[in-house]
Amino acid sequence: GSYSINSKATFTGSIRIDQSNLFGTDPKYQYRPLWSAGAHYELLKNHAWIDRLVVRATFGINGNIPKLNGPYLIARVDRNNYYTNENAMYIASPPNPQLRWEKTEVFNLGLDFNLLRNRLNGSVEFYNKNTNDLLGPFATDPTLGWTNVDINFGSMYNRGVEIALNSVNMQRGDFRWTSNLLFSYNKNMITRVEESDESAYSYFYGTNIRKGYPMGALFSVRYKGLNEQGAPVGLLANGEEILHYNKLTKDDLVYSGVVTPPYNASLTNTFSWKGFDLSLMFIYSGGHVMRDVAASYTITSHPIYAVGNTDRNRANYWKKPGDENIPGMNPAFMFQSSVRNGEYIYKASDKLVKKADFIKLRDLTLTYNVPSALVQKTGFKGMRINFQARNIWWWAANGELDPEVWTGTSLSPTRGVRYPAEFILGLNLNL
Predict the structure, then answer these.
(1) Sequential DSSP letters for 335-391
(2) How far apart are CA 217 and CA 228, in angstroms?
């Protein structure tokens, strides 16, 4: 419901009570009240250069439920089992009678404004979210029959700001220039997590959740360089050199950054003159990192496979003693299976971590509204000609890789195919 006072202050509130059998068999885990309360107050209106100024705040608690798990064992039919060629069942979701709601406390504080006779308007909003009983997969004892089970494994917070601005930069005769800016920043941190016996090897295949680090944190092996045989050399936290990952623990890994961008923004400028409209939209993401692709350097049977593609940087590999002193040199091709595990040191090393900031001209649109006097001669009521170009320019902090089409945080990430430039010409007619 809501309640207003003198059209200046408004108070709102809501409450909902949910009870779901997707949670533990204990009733105390099934019952969850969700509620929110808020208020907004008009501070100023038509005062000097301030047309309108409103402050608002909300606080509430919401929840999240598991979609594919619950307190009971879930099994699925596996037809023509690979090993027995018989129909069988496999465990799709192990039981967890202690599964609970994922609870999030959300506080928002915002400011809405219209200034300079509405030539500048927008909003600034700060938020703080504290989540407890996070839901997600967690490693378990494999002798139980499964390697992971969804549990309430920890707590985290999200803090950030979102800004939206609209401006009329210039209005002179038939010429008009307007801008729209959207900006967001998010910082999150894991504040509590169930302890597990994760190996350093498990970090090679993705981002792991660790207390004191953000969600999506990327960890890497300290990389020293190549030895005189062209093999990659890693470092433990104590400075010891290693050629094999078997001595690594998760505490030997170094934090390389976060793979999800904390900063995101878009800027659209529109220029209008008589019947022409030109719009340019730029986008930006930054503050995050990516792990570059590294081709395999261990070969077990054939010297070089004649099929398949490999990275062009692979041509720059160690060939003779002394090459290890050349900056950026890749490891040598090696045939011994004993050095295969050393490949992980290189592929998971901080040497391959790159900045993932990028800016793109996402869209350019030119529109011409044909004057009605000319259109009427053709028998139509209106005519508009459109030209649109997409993905025609981009910049990346790493110099060559497009982070937007890069996927994966493991030993074998994928660069993907760069978005192609698009050009579209259109004609709109009104009958």
Answers:
(1) --GGGTTHHHHHHTBGGGEEE--EEEEEEEEEEEE--HHHHHTTT-SEEEEEEEEEE
(2) 33
Put residue 183 in one of left, alpha, beta given phi > 0 → left and psi -120 to 50 → alpha. Answer: beta
Give the H/E segment covering residue 201.
Answer: helix 200-203
CB 404 within 8 A of CB 365: no
Q: Which of 42, 44, 60, 34 has its CA nearest to residue 127?
A: 60
* CA 303 to chain CA centroid, nearest Å: 39
Count Cα neighbours of 141 within 13 Å in the Cβ-side half-sphere: 2
DSSP, residue by residue, 127-191? EEEEEES-EEEEE--GGGS-SEEEEE-EEEEEEEEEEEEEEEEEEETTEEEEEEEEEEEEEEEEE
Q: Residue 290 phi/psi, 5° resolution?
A: -145, 155
Q: Quote the CA–CA distance of 399 and 18 in Å, as a whole number.
A: 51
Mean pLDDT by 10 residues, the chain (431 residues): 87 82 61 84 92 96 74 74 74 78 94 96 98 83 74 93 98 96 98 80 77 92 92 94 89 93 98 96 96 66 50 80 91 64 83 94 96 82 94 92 80 77 94 80
* Contact by Cβ (8 Å): 148, 137: yes
Structure tokens at 4: 């207003």
Distance of CA 108 to the CA centre of its chain: 22
User: pTM of the prediction?
Assistant: 0.87
Q: Where are the alpha helices (DSSP H) in 302-341?
A: none
Residue whose tokens read 């992980």: 344
Structure tokens at 16: 């909902």
Report whether 403 contacts 416 (CB < 8 A): no
Q: What angle do CA 396, 401, 407 make, to 5 degrees?
A: 110
DSSP state of 317: B
How far is Cα 105 from Cα 128, in angstroms, rounded to an integer?
A: 8
